[in-house]
Amino acid sequence: MLSMGQSKAHHIPSTSRKRAGFSFYTLLCYLVKIFTIFLIAIGIVVLALWLIYQPETIKVSAVSASLSRFNLSSSSDHLAHNLTVGLSFRNPNRKYSIYYERVEAEAWYDGGNLQIGDLGLPRMFQGRKSTMPVRVNFDGGTAVAGRERQEVKQSYDREKAEGFFYFNLRFYLTVRLKMVVVKSVKFKPDVNCYLRIPATFNASAIVAGFNSTKCDVKSFS
């Protein structure tokens, strides 16, 4: 009888472990379900807010630009340049701040056919309903030869006589919008700025100066 009692006593911990294991599994499933429902609810709220507060695209303007050096050498296939542009990035959204995760800039000449420089800017953050200054500088030289040189020289001579040089400034952006604690998917609103910059050697062009220019921005949507 004692041995039978002892045998039963040994089975009790085993049953308890099974019940404990079953309870833990049930609790885990319950927590997973709650977490899934929570994520779905957050997604619905974010979608609703997105539909209610459709984000406006950033507004970019070139507010200043100067050419301290821009020379096409007659003895070599070399276009020397030092182009500086000051820009204004405007976030018109009351509900969204903006994270700029990638900011790349390129400068082009001759109707956008000759790239004279490129650079990468550090990541930036912009608060809601705010304006942020951005400055880029392209200093160096670009090799031009053969038929390309002839085409560039035609543009250069014509614009030199006019007193204004024309450039295309392009930005390639990757941004995320943030509302409260939720970040959006990535957007890539490319920016194009068409610049008319006075030549430093032309007095009348210097007097006319550089006119602030609104840039074309690809929409978020």
UniProtKB/TrEMBL annotation:
CC terms in the record's Gene Ontology section: plasma membrane; plasmodesma
Localization in the cell: Membrane
GO BP, sorted A to Z: defense response to other organism
Keywords, ordered alphabetically: Membrane, Transmembrane, Transmembrane helix
Transmembrane segments: 20-53
Database matches in PANTHER family: OS01G0864300 PROTEIN, OS05G0367900 PROTEIN
Protein name: Late embryogenesis abundant protein LEA-2 subgroup domain-containing protein
Organism per entry: Vanilla planifolia (Vanilla)
